[in-house]
């Protein structure tokens, strides 16, 4: 039989464990609230990808993939536009020539993670290891030092956020996306989805691979790309990389991306 003092200690211990579990859960999942556009627009405009009002940052996730990425590189080269590619480390390791092609084309290579998994449970040690591993792969294969991090599915957690900061990466999500990973997406729907939220200073998310999307979904993004670039030109917006986007910088009325305006 447990005495009153023993029962009290057990209750206190159970309470402490419960509080610790609650704190751990909040630390893990709390940052994920930034997946919601209204939340990050209010709490973190930089995380929303807001930059210079005369510029649009064009970003691609989930590559590189030899079946699709070269098609995007061809269109971007035709329009003389440079973009930021958030690569999956394991894919980059399998296709190093594509990583080098990104850099040769003047594009920026950023970190999307080593794998493309949903963060159901806290794994801070694995998060740190895999982000660091991807940074190493980018440096070794591409010969560049990545600056940006976008987590798979855009879901930031405490572990992923800590891993990015430890690796010297700045997390960036997006302010407009094409919803180009779905089975019903086509060039028209992708274009309409992006333009519904596109403003100067915004960051656009598209996908140059379909490893975690509907098979062939990348074709919708590719089909929409020329029209999106043409619309940005019509609006007087320069399209370029996140490095050129001026996130967090004070607006001085000038922007280096103007010197490389696309046709």
Strand and helix map with partners:
Layout: H1 4-29, H2 37-43, E1 55-61, H3 69-78, E2 84-88, H4 89-94, H5 96-104, E3 108-113, H6 124-142, E4 148-149, H7 158-166, E5 170-171, E6 176-177, H8 187-197, E7 203-207, H9 218-234, E8 238-240
Parallel strand pairs: 1-2, 1-7, 1-8, 2-3, 4-5, 6-7
Helix pairs in contact: 6-7, 8-9
Describe this structure in words.
Strands 1, 2, 3, 6, 7 and 8 form a six-stranded parallel sheet that branches. This protein has one domain (about 30-250): Glycoside hydrolase/deacetylase (TIM Barrel, Alpha-Beta Barrel), CATH 3.20.20.370. The protein starts with a helix and ends in a 23-residue tail after the last strand. Strand 6 (about 175), helix 8 (about 185-195) and strand 7 form a beta-alpha-beta unit. It has nine helices and eight strands. It is of the alpha/beta class and about 260 residues long. The longest helix has 26 residues, at about 5-30. The protein is globular, with a radius of gyration of 21 Å. The model is unreliable at about 10-30 and about 250-263 (pLDDT under 50). The relative contact order is 0.18.
Query: How much helicity do the residues have?
Result: 40-55%
Biggest sheet features: 6 strands, parallel
Shape: globular
Radius of gyration: 21 Å
In total, the number of strands is: 8
Report the sheet-strand fraction: 5-15%
In CATH terms, the superfamily is: Glycoside hydrolase/deacetylase
The third-level CATH topology is TIM Barrel
- What string, H for helix and E for strand, traces the elements in order? HHEHEHHEHEHEEHEHE
CATH class: Alpha Beta
Whole-number mean pLDDT: 84
First-residue to last-residue Cα separation: 83 Å
Based on the coordinates given, report the CATH architecture.
Alpha-Beta Barrel
Instruction: Please give the count of helices.
Output: 9
Poorly predicted regions: 11-28, 249-263
The overall number of domains is 1
Structural class per helix/strand content?
alpha/beta
